[in-house]
Fold:
Amino acid sequence: MYSDNMENYKQELVKSFHQQFAENQNNHQSTFIQLLSIILSVIVGFGLALLNFGGTSTDKNFHLTLFDFTIAFCIAEGVLTLGFCLVVSYAYGFRRDQFVNATIRERAGITEESTEPLWQIFPNNYNPQKSFLKKQNEKKKLLIIWWMPDFHSIFTFAFLILEVLLLITYILKSYKANFLFTDSSIDWPSLFVFAIGIFFLFITYYTLYQFFKKIKRLYAEKTSP
Structure:
């Protein structure tokens, strides 16, 4: 009786995997559109601000002041930081659920470690904990990012690079328009801009580090006796 129930349970788990796989694909598509929309909106919005600042606009009746340009910069950086935090949060949720599913499959005996060849279905690398510990033992670089699935890692890099590029673009454009670093004395607007840029980058790194600690703690709890 127990054997029959176990067989049925294994079959149900295999079926649920196919359903979950289809749902994950749909979720990835919708998430991809959402994240890409964030990136495009920032590029278009900040691009328009860049075009209309410092006398480069073709419309002479529409010029942005340094204050306007700074506001546009802060909004763009804030949106990118929020998008970055969402990506890392999605990645943690995905890994957590993937880990729970992997644990269920192992206890049900439908991984490649199963003693029954028929049920050696799921490879060991479907368990994110084992993959993470392997990378950790190999001292893989940038593990603070590569614990995430590739889909999330790519967007993580995209948001981070855009944040840095926006800061550099802001400083260069303002300097070219003779608004920043105009004399040898303390340039408070310049320091304020640097503080804003560093603040958003700090939030980005802090969020990434906190979720990295959470995922390490999650995996460590399951390996402790």
User: Anything to note?
Assistant: Helices lie at 2-51, 66-108, 128-137, 143-146, 150-176, 188-223.
